[in-house]
Design brief:
By secondary structure, the protein is of the alpha+beta class. It is built from 5 helices and 7 strands; from the N terminus they run βαααβββαβαββ. It is globular and about 40 Å long.
Length: 175
């Protein structure tokens, strides 16, 4: 029996648990994510980041969520780059789950839940995502949620000291 997975909008009180997860997982995430300054891994650094995310939420450009298992924050799921204009209506999905809670289906369920938010609350038509070419677990999460790979963005992100390609994903949400 697995623990239940929920998502909700991020809150300022999430800064401490997120900082603890990110500090503990810094090495594990290094190959998948851009380098961060030391302050990123502190509750103060996360509080600043959350303030920016919530400002983006108020502006309509981002939907920043946390992933919960049994009411504990175990990760984040974010819709960024939201283009709400009638002729575009799309956003980009990003997510991470703390390593202690990985391989239990939380990422897949969180992505499924945020796709509903995108369609039903944000009125978006298209979901996009990008993964590192070698990030097979993340690719499985997207495939299970109906995403299709549609191209490669060459030399698109600086990770672990070198420019790397990204695999581009899409899913049409409907009208």
């Amino acid at each position: 029996m697995h623990s239940s997975t929920r998502i909700r909008l991020i809150e300022s009180t999430d800064a401490a648990p997120i900082a603890a997860h990110r500090a503990r997982d810094a090495e594990a995430f290094r190959r998948w994510e851009p380098a961060q300054p030391a302050g990123f891994f502190t509750p103060q650094g996360q509080a600043k980041r959350i303030d920016k995310l919530l400002a983006g939420y108020r502006a309509g450009t981002v939907w920043p969520g946390v992933v919960l298992a049994d009411d504990q924050v175990i990760g984040q799921v974010t819709v960024g780059g939201i283009l709400p204009q009638l002729h575009l209506r799309r956003g980009s999905v990003g997510y991470w789950i703390t390593s202690a809670a990985q391989n239990q289906g939380h990422a897949g369920r969180a992505v499924g839940l945020v796709l509903r938010v995108m369609r039903d609350e944000l009125g978006l038509h298209r979901a996009e995502a990008s993964t590192n070419l070698e990030n097979l677990p993340s690719q499985r999460v997207l495939r299970r949620n109906g995403f299709s790979a549609y191209g490669v963005a060459h030399s698109s992100i600086l990770l672990d000291g070198r420019w790397q390609d990204g695999l581009l994903w899409e899913r049409i949400l409907g009208d």
